[in-house]
UniProtKB/TrEMBL annotation:
PANTHER family: SOLUTE CARRIER FAMILY 45 MEMBER 3 ISOFORM X1 (PTHR19432:SF35), SUGAR TRANSPORTER (PTHR19432). GO terms for cellular component: membrane. It is a multi-pass membrane protein. It holds the Pfam family MFS_1. Keywords: Membrane, Transmembrane, Transmembrane helix, Transport. The chain crosses the membrane at residues 35-55, 67-84, 128-149, 169-187, 236-258, 278-297, 306-324, 330-352, 364-385, 397-418. It comes from Indibacter alkaliphilus (strain CCUG 57479 / KCTC 22604 / LW1). It is found in: Membrane. InterPro entries: MFS (IPR011701), MFS_dom (IPR020846), MFS_trans_sf (IPR036259). GO terms for molecular function: transmembrane transporter activity. The keyword Transport applies. This is Maltose transporter MalT.
Length: 427
């Protein structure tokens, strides 16, 4: 039931690893890159709660509750992922990112809700960790695709303002994997029907309508559990850090480590491929860390809060170390530490949340929870990154990675706010 996340992560890894490269190739200034990303989190802020609300109220005899949204998101994501690297202007690339992120969001949160639907509380840490394991595989493979395309002879450079063929081929492969893996989950996973189908339909009939839907969503926001609010603080700092990485890892590392700034040069494009390789490392390590967590959570009960806090500290240290290293190979160590954080971010908060909300509202609350992911990204895109790293550290673009590390350490400390034992420990 989690295999579709392989494709979702292919989409996210290619988006996160190479959209900034596409923006730079099309002439974007480094400081303008976060603003070009803003459509993605803005879309998530709107789409996720609505999709979660609708999926809670959906039941189809053949496709179930969550799978219709998997299919819609898969079709739209595949189209957007294929055409994104063929953008010839910045506005086209930003529009492609907007469509891609919106489409992936349609599929993603129903996948989270599906795990909570089908697993008892005692198995949810294990279930979300298994998802993270699959995500790690997808991140590692997808992040290395442009490099691999270059190794088999596909051109890695192009005329100024043109995306190299290596990137185009990588996105095309990602599109195929995304659709095929989500389709596999749709065809092989059953869903449980509502306990009382007639009552389910009656309540849906009573509450149907555009304004009723938004009213219920806002009521759920107003009455969200305390644990969800506390996790929101953790999520804010966590996702501010990773949005900073996705926006600035390519310009920061190509400039600070490799000294390459000409986006049409072989030096820059080789360095950008290397950045993808380093980002692949965090995916690979997240896979192994998730594998370890999967083994542990299948055997013993864990303290979710403690695991998450220590994992975030590790990732924060990895980001900060990027400023101090001199040899490119050492970036693998930095991103290995980041991978530990990534594995935990994709599993522990959802396990804690799913133990604290009404199962009948799992979809809408998973969607609302996404607000704590997209709001920090919106703040970052509107100038938060540029303002904070220059104010706190200095003008060099590599200080964005130091800012990301500081944010992850604050996220780790924020776990101390969570005191509900039902949320922090396996049931």
């Amino acid at each position: 039931m989690s295999f579709g996340f392989l494709g979702i992560q292919f989409g996210f890894a290619l988006q996160g690893g190479f959209m900034s490269r596409i923006f730079q190739t099309l002439g974007a200034d480094k400081d303008a890159i976060p603003l070009l990303w803003i459509a993605a989190p803005l879309t998530g802020l709107i789409v996720q709660p609505i999709v979660g609300y609708l999926s809670d109220r959906t039941w189809h005899v053949k496709f179930g509750r969550r799978r219709p949204y998997f299919l819609i998101g898969a079709v739209l994501s595949t189209i957007a992922l294929f055409f994104a690297p063929y953008s010839s202007a910045l506005w086209m690339a930003a529009g492609a990112l907007w469509v891609l992120d919106a489409s992936i969001n349609i599929s993603m949160e129903p996948f989270r809700a599906l795990v909570a639907d089908k697993l008892p509380d005692s198995q949810r840490s294990y279930g979300f960790v298994v998802q993270t394991l699959i995500i790690g595989v997808g991140t590692w493979i997808a992040s290395n695709l442009p490099w691999f395309m270059t190794q088999i002879g596909i051109p890695n450079t192009a005329e100024p303002g043109v995306i190299p063929d290596s990137v185009k081929f990588a996105f095309a492969i990602g599109a195929v994997v995304l659709f095929a893996s989500i389709l596999y989950t749709i065809l092989t996973t059953d869903e449980y029907p509502p306990e009382d189908l007639e009552e389910f339909r009656r309540k849906n009939e009573e509450s149907k309508g555009f304004f009723n839907g938004f009213k219920e969503i806002f009521q759920n926001i107003a009455s969200m559990p305390t644990v969800m609010k506390q996790l929101g603080v953790v999520q804010f700092f966590s996702w501010f850090a990773f949005f900073t990485m996705w926006s600035f890892a390519t310009p920061a590392i190509t400039e600070h480590i490799f000294g390459a700034t000409d986006t049409s040069s072989a030096a820059y494009n080789d360095a950008a491929d290397s950045v993808g390789n380093y980002l692949g490392t965090y995916g690979l390590v997240s896979m192994f860390f998730a594998l370890i967590l999967a083994f542990i959570t299948s055997k013993v009960k864990i303290n979710r809060k403690l695991v998450h806090m220590l994992s975030l500290f590790a990732g924060g240290s990895g980001f900060i170390l990027i400023y101090f290293i001199q040899e490119p190979w050492m970036l693998h160590i930095c991103f290995a530490l980041v991978g530990i954080s990534w594995a935990s971010i994709l599993s522990m908060p959802y396990a804690m949340l799913s133990s604290s909300v009404n199962p009948k509202q799992m979809g809408v609350y998973m969607g609302i929870f996404n607000m704590f992911i997209v709001i920090p990204q919106i703040i970052a895109a509107l100038g938060g990154i540029n303002f904070m790293y220059k104010l706190l550290f200095g003008e060099e673009v590599v200080f964005t990675m130091v800012l990301a590390g500081t944010s992850l350490i604050l996220a780790g400390l924020s776990n101390l706010l969570i005191t509900n034992r039902q949320a922090t420990h396996d049931g």
